[in-house]
Amino acid sequence: MCVATDVRNTTMSAILFEKRGHQAWITLNRPEAKNTLNGEAFVGLADAWDEVRADDNIRVAVVTAAGEQDFCCGGDLGDVIPLWTGTREAATPLEERLKNDPLISDKVMLKGEPLYKPVISAINGRALGGGTELVQATDIRLAADHAQFGLPEPKLGIVPGAGSMVRLTRQLPWAHAMKILLGGAPVSAQEALAMGLVSEVLPIGELLARAEHYAEVVSAQAPLALQAIKRTALETHTQPWAEAFQFEMGQAAEVMMSKDAREGTKAFREKRTPDFKGQ
After folding, report:
1. In this structure, are 192 and 84 located in the same domain?
2. What tens digit of pLDDT does each residue of 20-71 get?
3. What UniProt keywords apply to this chain's record, in alphabetical order (predicted)?
């Protein structure tokens, strides 16, 4: 297990941000409110992703939530909708940022500036609405066996517009995606695993240890290689084959010229652990 090197609250307490060596651990911290995203959480999570993106020492991020009932049940509509519609004035500088930055929601759901570093989600309970949308923005998805996933927005006369209408049909077979998108009953963790929405399902008591395992494994890899892999997967997802392979070759060539590539092959020959620098 990595030793924490930097533990702090990001924008107060709705989002906790912790650095453990080459890992960033982000925790949604409103269990009393089903870990819904209020103004503070929106801004804090957007800032956390920005820090993961900007800090070259961070190679992988893990996102989870406090408690054992809810991962995230979406936005705190009573808190954020009045701000966005102008029926309530911002009461704090954080709320002022939320009100005046139309891209905050995109940043939270990783829809805006891409994040090519791997992201692991440790889904400790219900992921509904924006919670399911946040899960879709992650790469390795570990779910507690009592977790649930759903997009109830159509029941409220709105749509899941934080990425799901685009992402879900690209990540799942059509029939599975539409079952979730059209506002049906939440699917269980076991159903989500069968659909391919999550990577693994395990007891809640094993969830964080499993996330730590994957974070250790991923953060030990060469960071430039990891980012090239994710960048290629994201950027070529809808490209024609020829264009996609051309992009892939460009990424491969760039990584092969890196100092890390030379270090990796040298360490293999010398039967030692490589010392990657991200260069």
Report:
1. yes
2. 999 999 999 999 999 999 888 989 999 999 999 999 999 999 999 999 999 9
3. Lipid metabolism, Lyase
Whole-number Å distance between alpha carbons of 261 and 222: 8
State both tokens at 151. Answer: 């997009």
Domain of residue 232, residue span: 223-269
Distance CA 116, CA 247 (A): 15
Nearest to 126 by CA among 135, 115, 136: 135
Residue 127 inside a domain? The answer is yes
**Both 98 and 132 in a single domain?**
yes
CB-CB contact of 34 with 100 (8 Å): no
Spatial separation of the C-alpha atoms in residues 277 and 265, rounded to whole Å: 14
Which residues have a catalytic role annotated?
133, 153
Contact 61, 28 (CB under 8 A): no
